[in-house]
Design brief:
globular; two-stranded antiparallel ribbon; alpha+beta
Length: 135
């Protein structure tokens, strides 16, 4: 069986627009149409309602956590969670790189563990190599 090309899930304004276009469909049908599903190795599609609903909350700019820093309405805040994309990539968004003051071209050493990936910034002069945000 050929693997289906799974689209990237919609986010932000695109997500809100698409949900409005889908009108009277069920929540599950809307989530699937917006790309919030996975296909198992047996070819079964599973809708990921939690990711869909969280993306809608983020797209609307609703802050459910009390992590707001008091600078206006905000928008999306860093959740310290990412998912592997359908193409196998992990994307670390600008919220994280900005918080660390990273610039284009900054380099990292990657160390793989059994259940973790550790990034260590290279060529750091001030000794503050790692930002530990463990909760």
């Amino acid at each position: 069986m050929a693997k289906k090309n799974q689209p990237e899930p919609l986010t932000g304004e695109e997500l809100i627009k698409k949900v409005k276009e889908l009108g009277n469909l069920s929540k599950e049908e809307k989530a699937r149409a917006c790309g919030y599903y996975t296909v198992t190795k047996n070819g079964i599609e599973r809708v990921n309602m939690m990711k869909f609903l969280n993306a809608l909350i983020d797209a609307e700019g609703i802050e459910l956590d009390s992590t707001s820093n008091g600078h206006g309405r905000g928008g999306r805040s860093a959740s310290y969670k990412i998912s592997v994309q359908s193409n196998g990539n992990l994307l670390i968004g600008s919220a994280y790189t900005s918080k660390m003051g990273l610039k284009a071209g900054d380099e990292f050493e990657i160390t793989l563990g059994r259940k973790h990936i550790h990034l260590k910034q290279l060529n750091v002069d001030d000794g503050d190599e790692e930002l530990d945000e463990a909760s």
